[in-house]
Amino acid sequence: DKEGEKTLRSPICCIMGHVDTGKTKLLDCIRRTNVQEGEAGGITQQIGATYIPAENIRERTKELKADALLNVPGLLVIDTPGHESFKNLRSRGSGLCDIGILVVDIMHGLEPQTIESLNLLRMRNTEFIVALNKVDRLYGWKACRNAPIGKAMKQQSKGVKLEFDHRLTQIIAQFKEQGLNTELYSKNKERGETYSIVPTSAISGEGIPEMILLLVQWAQKTMIEKLTYSNEIQCTVLEVKVIEGLGATIDVVLVNGVLHEGDEIVVCGFQGPIHTTIRSLLTPHPMKELRVKGAYIHHKEIKAAQGIKITAQNLEHAVAGTALYVVGPGDDVKELKESVMDDMRNVMSRVDKSGEGVFVQASTLGSLEALLEFLKTPAVSIPVNGIGIGPVHKKDILKAGTMKKKEYKTILAFDVKVTPEAQEHADNNGVTIFIAHIIYHLFDQFKAYIDKLKE
Ligand code: GTP
Ligand code: MG
Ligand code: NA
What we know:
- One of its GO terms (molecular function) is translation initiation factor activity.
- This is Eukaryotic translation initiation factor 5B.
- The structure is a single chain.
- This protein has 455 residues and is of the alpha/beta class.
- The chain has 13 helices and 21 strands.
- α4 links the parallel β4 (99-105) and β5.
- The protein binds guanosine-5'-triphosphate (GTP), magnesium ion (MG) and sodium ion.
- Sodium ion binds next to loops.
């Protein structure tokens, strides 16, 4: 980069909304991928990140003839789950972003997690646009693949236009009830005061050009200061994952600064601060999802904003949602260690180690947090005595075996494997393991078990 010239980093955009409104599908449409169909139960249960380079933004918006207006290197998009159990991940995602997309299903209007997401965005004063998705479901919709919505609308029959106007008016009124002024993007003369609504279809691609362009233009126009690249590292751990062949890894979002292979880092750990050295810096290919296992690109160094997988020793107890620090020349490691631990507390405070309760094991800390949150809700209300991340091992069975009540000699395993040794030990010691890949199925299984015990 030329000295003295202000360079911008990529804006970070978080996509939020109620379950099944089409958040992942919209990203699939932009990426030309098929992540959504690979999800268990078709629901997103992890936070994701995808880098969209400027050239792809140009390509996707070229019909709108806005090329010259692009001066960010790309866009980093964070996908979040819409299912009610994942408020923590929505909160983590929205906490990272510069700008948001709030997705609303045109056939459903505002739903509970639409409002929750809206409030998370407003709480942090985050600018956002509304994607009014699934327009192709309007009766008689004529598909105009990947066309700008302005163009697609002109092709529609009078009936479609009437139904669209009717639903749009209702949804604008629903937003108004939430204290929010919204308007169709093309009529919105008071951007900033009034939020823009862009009609989209994630299936046939109409409106995607406007959606991307509005985001990038709005970010460039209103947040130059915030997007000015700075060398100061700002980095958050999204997820902690054990990956075959790589061991425990962390997925991070680098908001600002540069990370290098060999950098000494400090992150928050369940059992105290973790001080380690970056072994490798991996990213998926551009336009691919970080949370989906695939081919990784190795980097010697990498500049913000990016979603990155870091491999290093001792990461297995890292805590998602906390800050990552790089030990710079003259930095006091002891001080950094204290700082990272400030973030923690939250998760551990949810586990009552004194009483009786089930054991919960999950694939990532993010899903573990979500599961704990879910088990705590009044309708579910299952006490938890122990938690863990990764496969279920014999030692976990031993712990569960110490519970007195039969119903708590139980492991709720979410999206993890059970080692054969652990399974054998469980069978011989009256410990029951419930395995599920969808969070609420665990509850259903456990509830059925309790009911059976009571008989
Ligand atoms: P969660 O991540 O689980 O909250 O859901 P999501 O908001 O990511 O929605 P997802 O992408 O999983 O889509 C949910 C369902 O709606 C899938 O069956 C999609 O194929 C469908 N869908 C998404 N967008 C559209 C759209 O624009 N038109 C139509 N007809 N269907 C859509
Ligand atoms: Mg999704
Ligand atoms: Na879904």
